[in-house]
């Protein structure tokens, strides 16, 4: 499985990151918060990696950019984790 995950990450880098490396223009970079930049390459890479991981593992994926765009994502994740103090079950209630 590690080879499949590595392939997803390498493919995302080749498609989203490498072609844009040191070539981004101003409207492709935004500041989420002071000093916290995000680029179109970041968002596309996250989208590709999330999709690829879901195909391999069939589990939800939470990425930095998607969670920052929708704060309810982390709130839901934190709530589910707080109801699992023993960490013996996953967020779906499976052991």
The helical percent reads 40-55%
User: How many strand elements?
Assistant: 2
Unreliable stretches covering 5 or more consecutive residues: none
The coarse overall form would be flat
Binned strand content:
5-15%
Helix segment tally? 4
Strand order of the largest sheet: 1-2
What number is the mean pLDDT?
A: 87
Task: Give the topology string: H per helix, E per strand.
Answer: HEEHHH
User: Structural class per helix/strand content?
Assistant: mainly alpha
Explained architecture:
The chain has 95 residues and is mainly alpha-helical. It has a domain at 2-65. Helices cover 54% and strands 9% of the residues. It has helices at residues 2-17, 40-57, 64-69, 72-82, and strands at residues 29-33, 36-39. A hairpin with a 2-residue loop joins strand 1 (29-33) and strand 2. The longest helix has 18 residues, at 40-57. It is flat.
Give a quick rundown of the structure.
This protein has helices spanning 2-17, 40-57, 64-69, 72-82; strands spanning 29-33, 36-39. It is mostly helical and 95 residues long.
């Amino acid at each position: 499985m590690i080879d499949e995950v590595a392939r997803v990450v390498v493919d995302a880098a080749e498609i989203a990151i490498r072609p844009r490396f040191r070539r981004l223009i101003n409207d492709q970079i935004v500041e989420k918060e002071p000093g916290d930049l995000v680029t179109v390459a970041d968002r596309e890479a996250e989208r590709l990696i999330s999709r690829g991981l879901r195909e391999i593992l069939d589990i939800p994926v939470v990425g930095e950019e998607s969670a920052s765009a929708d704060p309810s994502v982390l709130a839901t994740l934190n709530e589910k984790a707080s109801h699992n103090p023993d960490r013996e079950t996953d967020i779906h209630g499976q052991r």
